[in-house]
Each structure stands twice: as structure tokens, then as C-alpha cells.
Amino acid sequence: MLGRADRIAKALSRSRNWVIQQAVDRYLDNEEWFVQQVTAGLEDVKRGKTIPHDGVMAEIREKIAKAQRGSSSGQPWRETIFSLFLTRICVVLLCALVW
Description:
By secondary structure, the chain is mainly α. It has 2 domains: 1-48; 51-99. It contains 4 helices and no strands. It has helices at 2-12, 16-46, 53-69, 77-98. The protein is elongated and about 50 Å long. The two termini are 37 Å apart.
């Protein structure tokens, strides 16, 4: 791991310490975001603010079909699907946590 940090530090003309601090900061930022998203999702579940599985799947199928026909945003359909996937990943994670 230190070898990787050293290579990055050299490429950026920074110290190993700086590279490691950046990595830790980014990791912690990501973990904080994830915990906040899961907490918010669990609060939604407690309030009954959920979408049944069939509803989510119908929405995903509709968006896939629309993306394959060509989206109005001009995004290629694969990028649209990936974006949809990222927005729905919390739903899957919440289902796993609740069950």
C-alpha cells in the first residue's frame, strides 16, 4: 500500500503523508454519506414511506425501455441505466437491512 501511495505522491509532487490523508478523508466522506443514506432510508421505512418491490421493478423496466428508445436528456441508454441503478441501490440495501 505504501508503494502505491509513494507512486501517487511522486506523480502529484506531494508527500506520502498528503496522499494518505487525502485517501482517508475521501474514505471517511464516503462512509459518512453512506451512513446518512441508510439512516434516512430506515427512517422512511419506519414512517411507511416505501415502494413495493413490484412498483420499483415496473419503474425500472419503464426507464430501461425509454432509455433503449433514446432518452430526451441525450444520455446514452447505458449511462441512463447506470444512473438509475445508482439511485436505486439504496432501496436494495435498505431491503436487505430490514429483512
